[in-house]
Amino acid sequence: MMRTSFNDGWQTRPKVNPFAELSGSTVPFRPVTLPHDAMIERERAAPGGEVTMEGGAGAYFPGGTYEYRKTFSVPEEHRGKRILFEFEGVYRDAVVFINGDYAGQRPFGYAHFHIDADRFLRFGEDNEIRVEARTHRDSRWYTGAGIYRDTWMLVGEVVRIAPDGVRVTTPDIDGERAVVELATRVENDSTAVRTVDVVTEIRDADGSVVAGDVSKVTVLPGEPATVRQRLYVRAPLLWSTDSPTLYAATVTLKDLDTETVTFGIRSLSLDPERGLRINGETVKLRGACVHHDNGVLGAATFARAEERRVHLLKDAGFNAIRMSHNPMSKAMLDACDRLGMLVVDESFDVWTSGKSEFDYSLNFPEWWERDIEAMVAKDFNHPSVIMYSIGNEIPETGSPFGAAWGRKLAEKVRSSDHTRYVTNAVNGMLAVMSELGKLLRQSQERATEDGAGINTLMADAGDMMNAISASGLVTEKTAESFAVLDVAGMNYAEARYALDRDLFPNRIILGTETFPTRVDGNWRLVKQHGHVIGDFTWTGWDYLGEVGIGRPQYATPGAPRPSHTAPYPYLLADCGDLDITGHRRPASYYREIVFGLRTRPYIAVRRPEHHGRTWAGSPWAWSDTLAGWTWPGFEGSPVTIEVYGDADEVELLLDGRSLGRQPVGEDHRFRTEFDTTYEPGELLAVAYRDGTETGRHTLRSATGRVELRAEADRQVITANGGDLAYIALTLTDPDGTLHTAADRPVTVEVSGAGVLLGFGSADPASEERFDATERRTYEGRALAVLRPTGPGKIHLLASAPECDPVEVLVDVD
């Protein structure tokens, strides 16, 4: 079918009661271009004010109901054709009306779905489509609201290739040739029997035809037919993370329809000794869990935003993404294919047992099969997708009925796609929550016998989760739920890795969610055990909602332990290796060293204002550090410096004066500390192995006048296809050293062929808005995102107090 973007020309507003509107209480529509997040534009409120999405879970944004409408014309020549509208994601409880009539709905906010539209349309005149979306206390994280992913208009003949109707597999590969099997679903909505030619060509990355076939298919009225073709690609170039080679398959129904899909030629295999193999080579998954929001853009899903995230995550050392806890966008899947990033795509965060008052558990029993089908249809041709996850921390996994549900979901996935593996991200503690009291009493008794108390056991959430997950109770209660899977996904349960090698010798384990503070030990286990195929940290990229779970916290004598969730105005989880602007934080460089991908050391400085205080951060919280040596007002004050490295030892020098040498490397958890007093200058770390230098890292104090700088990520962008320009705004000294202690408001003005789409910083607790033209920097940084409106030039002018204004020009083709 012919696909045309349907993103332009929409209007939106908060939905109003029609009876109230009749009485004069009107709310005007305003124009928007999709994708669009209606929630990110709302005013946040502290608890006690306007009803919020479970407060901190949704970043203190209010829920609500929103409506979108668009007027469009359908030419007379389209009469008799099939017309569909495709929505890649509407959050949530989407209901679609065409010319005032109900046309369809989709409760799940992450499913892509189609609306059969032609029966409702008026040909040769204007039509109106209206979409309602509602969200209210239905998630544990920031979801956004509205039509937040792309929309499409599909037009085709009555005999046509079905949407998502071309599926490609590569079941047999060797060095000389690859077998490429295509299954094409052809539909016939006419009243006549039709026989058509199906012409298929496979092209390589250069556009050369490398295989082809012609088949005939007879399609009966109302009875879709599947055409299977087996083609052979000689000397295939295989898809991998290091060499993500893609092919294109074009399937044509002669004189009727054409569909082109991209795919990769690669093989997957799995066993407990060699783990996961791609094209015959063992691959350990260096994984990042990510949420679906795009930081300063909210939940709006633009292709460039997704591509940029994948690119930056790969640059940081990750080779796999787990989309948590919902299906990944098509745009991100495309980026993972192109850039060579592996994907674990996840279906649901809930099944029948809800986690929020009005979440998807209310719809799951009726809709789960259709939503699984939609996820698989979206993913099928993407070589980056290696595994489907049927859930995350599902409480039912510890019960027989929950295991039965898991079996149904796993078999549904396999019947839809037998070429990939099935996992489930199981949290052992949650799986036995109903019996947790008994287990804790037993643990307390054992701890008392060992001379410790229950408070010692509970002092660290990671230790507690591990102790419970490794218990015999969890072993017994989760055995069937794990047995229905190809890969046992485990959240915060590394204590099971060695244990299960003996208890379940055929079990293959994936650390589907782990604490960032334990990556060194976890990665050692991944390397040691063939049946453990990888580790996914929570999280690779910081996100909106679940506010403050990774924030720095310090104990106060006599005060209660700090809460899990931070109070308003906290906005971010504050736990990503990369912050919401894409800037790498110290934990990211530490992880890169642990992965064996960085030989140079890395310096991170603890904030001197907290020196001497007792750390009380959660296991999701990295140390309260910053890669900066600019601390005005703390001259002569004590400061602790962390140095990360994979070497025998590291020497730290301040202005050439040695502060000593310390052992570092794996036996010392790849880190060491130096205590000194702060004085401006140059801090240098030099790593040594066997007495030979292996690398160095330098931090310099910012001095002199503060300057504002602006830099675009690319000088030329395109006017369509979801492209964006990212403008990094930084405060530096005249030599270009980032000034982390000179934050101030920055104002931007955008003119020309683009608009300001989002503007913000990584400040985890700001009350500033992302749709404003002024934003205060955080640790010397801010980020502006521009959306092109057509060909030409986008001009951005930025200014800040006591700084010369700066400007950036971006060309739009």
UniProtKB/TrEMBL annotation:
<dbReference type="Pfam" id="PF02836">
    <property type="entry name" value="Glyco_hydro_2_C"/>
</dbReference>
<dbReference type="InterPro" id="IPR006102">
    <property type="entry name" value="Ig-like_GH2"/>
</dbReference>
<dbReference type="InterPro" id="IPR017853">
    <property type="entry name" value="GH"/>
</dbReference>
<feature type="domain" description="Glycoside hydrolase family 2">
    <location>
        <begin position="708"/>
        <end position="808"/>
    </location>
</feature>
<dbReference type="InterPro" id="IPR006101">
    <property type="entry name" value="Glyco_hydro_2"/>
</dbReference>
<dbReference type="InterPro" id="IPR008979">
    <property type="entry name" value="Galactose-bd-like_sf"/>
</dbReference>
<dbReference type="Pfam" id="PF00703">
    <property type="entry name" value="Glyco_hydro_2"/>
</dbReference>
<protein>
    <submittedName>
        <fullName>Glycoside hydrolase family 2 TIM barrel-domain containing protein</fullName>
    </submittedName>
</protein>
<keyword id="KW-0378">Hydrolase</keyword>
<keyword id="KW-0326">Glycosidase</keyword>
<comment type="similarity">
    <text>Belongs to the glycosyl hydrolase 2 family.</text>
</comment>
<dbReference type="InterPro" id="IPR040605">
    <property type="entry name" value="Glyco_hydro2_dom5"/>
</dbReference>
<dbReference type="InterPro" id="IPR013783">
    <property type="entry name" value="Ig-like_fold"/>
</dbReference>
<dbReference type="InterPro" id="IPR036156">
    <property type="entry name" value="Beta-gal/glucu_dom_sf"/>
</dbReference>
<feature type="domain" description="Glycoside hydrolase family 2 immunoglobulin-like beta-sandwich">
    <location>
        <begin position="169"/>
        <end position="266"/>
    </location>
</feature>
<dbReference type="Pfam" id="PF18565">
    <property type="entry name" value="Glyco_hydro2_C5"/>
</dbReference>
<feature type="domain" description="Glycoside hydrolase family 2 catalytic">
    <location>
        <begin position="276"/>
        <end position="427"/>
    </location>
</feature>
<dbReference type="Pfam" id="PF16355">
    <property type="entry name" value="DUF4982"/>
</dbReference>
<dbReference type="InterPro" id="IPR032311">
    <property type="entry name" value="DUF4982"/>
</dbReference>
<dbReference type="InterPro" id="IPR006103">
    <property type="entry name" value="Glyco_hydro_2_cat"/>
</dbReference>
<feature type="domain" description="DUF4982">
    <location>
        <begin position="636"/>
        <end position="694"/>
    </location>
</feature>
<dbReference type="InterPro" id="IPR051913">
    <property type="entry name" value="GH2_Domain-Containing"/>
</dbReference>
<dbReference type="GO" id="GO:0016787">
    <property type="term" value="F:hydrolase activity"/>
</dbReference>
